[in-house]
Design a protein that fits this description.
globular; mainly alpha; 10 helices; about 325 residues; 8 strands
Length: about 325
Amino acid sequence: MRFAFTDEQFELRDAVHEMLTQRCDATTLRAAWANESGRAPAAWAALYDMGVLDAMRPAASGGLDMTEVDVVLILETTGRFALPEPIVETMMVSAPLDLINADGESAAVVTSESPFAAWADSAATIVELTASGITATPRSKVKLQHRISVDGARRLFDVELPRTPIVSTEVARAFRRGVLGTAAQLCGLADRMLDLTVEYAQQRKQFGVPIGSFQAIKHHLADARIKLEFARPLVYRAAASLSVNHRDASIHVGMAKAAASDAAMLASRAALQCHGAIGYTTEYDLHLYMKRAWALSAAWGDATWHRQRVSDWLFSPTQPVVREGAQ
């Protein structure tokens, strides 16, 4: 059994990284905070041209029929750039179920754990995960009410859906894919915040020396890095479990989301503390990634919610674990 990513998976990740370096820099993120959609159209179009949006779509529908293992590194990369696009909702939830057209359309998803749909006003389809199944409704038939988000680019909406027929009952796996994608993005965000802080600590001087030479700074950053390096294997294991429909995939995904949320939150605290006053300013780029981490840590079930699921499984292994999207 192979316990490593393939060269092709690394190459696809690197290609996405190179594209986002050009089309999703801090200037693009700031524009997304100010524009009407909260999105980065050039980056989204490039992802479509690269085939990324259809990676998980069935081959019979024109997709690449990839697995969760094939795309987890891509999602981590989109997190690193705080991509202001509904890629998790579109690529991980809607495309595998063939709920949107294969022409670059996007989807918004609402669940009981994430009741507000991100970027719903510019999505082609609103997908709802419920206890009874999955519904897909054209945005034109949905009533939206804008909600305030800590992340100005991640526009949130309260969704009022009409009565629509159930198009799928594959709720559990769709929910797990959403959780996995969010966990991977949180790892990417944590990595980006740590890199920003290391760079700052090497340049910022006090008492004539870089602050990165101070033990207190080193300890903060080391603790955050260790947290991230423990979270990543859980995310990759969850992707592998989902790809083979492992019987404990739900628990593996929950552990990954809890660990990734913790890693991103610790990285944001360490970054903010090490930056000092400048870290609190909106003129500095840190807040663009920090606020996305705060938002995603609470999305698709927060760390406490997922830990409770894991605890229930550990102490009642013969009982049903969870009804994803049904609370």
